[in-house]
Specification:
Blueprint (H helix, E strand, L loop, with lengths): L3 H8 L19 E8 L2 E7 L3 H5 L6 E7 L4 H11 L3 H8 L6 E4 L4 E10 L5 E10 L3 E6 L7 H9 L9 H36 L3 H33 L7 H66 L15 H22 L4
Parallel strand pairs: 3-7
Antiparallel strand pairs: 1-2, 1-3, 4-5, 5-6, 6-7
């Protein structure tokens, strides 16, 4: 089977087995962080290369190797050699356009999730996170360095919670749980923006309100595209019969699954709210337009009889009544004013304005 990754490699003029990094605009150099631990032991350090890691990789501890930045192709080839990773897994890690998924390779499980960051310009930045769950190791790959897993690293170093007492499947659960929890942060920010948009719409709707509605809808669509496959990936972990996942850990993956369902429901609710806000905006603009047209219609209606009178006395006949009267001009103006006042009174009586 030829993957999308291979097709891109061939278009670039490279050998089918070559690794090429696709689509990451982030860090210039990969940062490698190594954590080793068990219930009575902990070690953490940054690695310049994998030589030191290879020397004692078989220690009886759980190993968490985190890589931030996907630029060093040779590094990934070395990681693939050390841990026996399939070439397609390495390709999927470097191709950052993957949908969330879970794949079982027997000796390890490969997970893909997406994390999101709010941008200063109001947009939403998507980042791919790859996790490989092995018997005594966890590999995580991110497009850039962030604080997403900082709380987990602190719990391990301070021996808080259950992580150091459990196997690698519990650490994988903790990583996924942090990713899913970050969705709640994104949704809280979206909720604040939607509420502010509703207030602005009530006060004074304008073209910027319409632009904000469409931007928020695009964000929700982007989140939805990641959440549905993420739900399926977590569900696959629940149902997996892999020996890498203990029965006692399945309940924690079910908890993440429930959180994902709650997030999906919230996203759908926000979509409905934005659809309602869009309808309110369109109705408000339509009502304002109707008010303007009503005023213009009333003005035109008032001037219709006045224009008729002015048109009659503007005809160039020699023998016309009132033309030779001293008060004729002022008399006709008075009649026109009286007609206009009567019409205004009639419109007010009908509550037309």
């Amino acid at each position: 089977m030829t993957s999308k990754y291979h097709k891109r490699s061939r278009k670039a003029g490279l050998a089918p087995g070559s690794l090429v990094h696709i689509g990451s605009p982030y860090a210039e150099k990969s940062k490698i962080t190594l954590l080793r631990y068990n219930e009575g032991f902990f070690e953490a350090k940054d690695l310049e290369n994998l030589k030191d890691f290879q020397a004692d990789k078989d220690k009886e501890t759980i190993t968490w190797l985190n890589v931030d930045g996907l630029q060093d192709i040779k590094l990934f080839e070395e990681i693939g050699r050390i841990f026996g990773l399939h070439p397609l897994v390495l390709e999927d890690i470097l191709n950052t356009a993957q949908r969330p998924k879970m794949e079982d390779y027997g000796d390890y499980l490969y997970l893909v999730a997406r994390n999101f960051h709010d941008q200063e310009n109001g947009g939403l930045l998507s980042e791919q996170i790859s996790i490989i769950l092995g018997k005594n190791f966890i590999l995580s790959f991110r497009e850039k360095e962030s604080d997403l897993f900082k709380s987990i690293q602190e719990k391990i170093s301070l021996n808080k919670g259950r992580i150091r007492k459990e196997n690698t499947d519990y650490l994988a659960h903790a990583l996924l749980d942090n990713i899913v929890d970050n969705y709640f942060v994104i949704l809280e920010n979206l909720e604040e923006k939607i509420e502010a948009l509703e207030d602005d719409l009530i006060r004074q709707p304008d073209s910027s309100s319409l632009q904000a509605i469409h931007m928020l809808k695009r964000k929700l669509i982007l989140l939805g595209k990641s959440l549905w496959p993420l739900r399926e990936a977590i569900s696959a972990l629940e149902r997996s019969d892999s020996a890498l996942i203990n029965k006692t850990t399945v309940v924690y993956f079910k908890d993440i699954y429930d959180h994902t369902i709650a997030i999906i429901d919230t996203v759908e609710t926000f979509k409905d709210m934005l659809s309602g806000i869009l309808d309110v905006y369109l109705d408000t603009v339509s009502n304002r337009l109707n008010e303007v047209m009503k005023i213009l219609t009333i003005i035109a209606t008032i001037f219709m009889p006045l224009t008729f009178i002015a048109g009659i006395y503007g005809m160039n006949f020699k023998y016309m009544p009132e033309l030779d009267m001293r008060w004729g001009y002022f008399g006709i103006l008075g009649v026109m004013l009286l007609v206009a006042l009567l019409m205004v009174r009639y419109f007010r009586k009908k509550n037309w304005f």
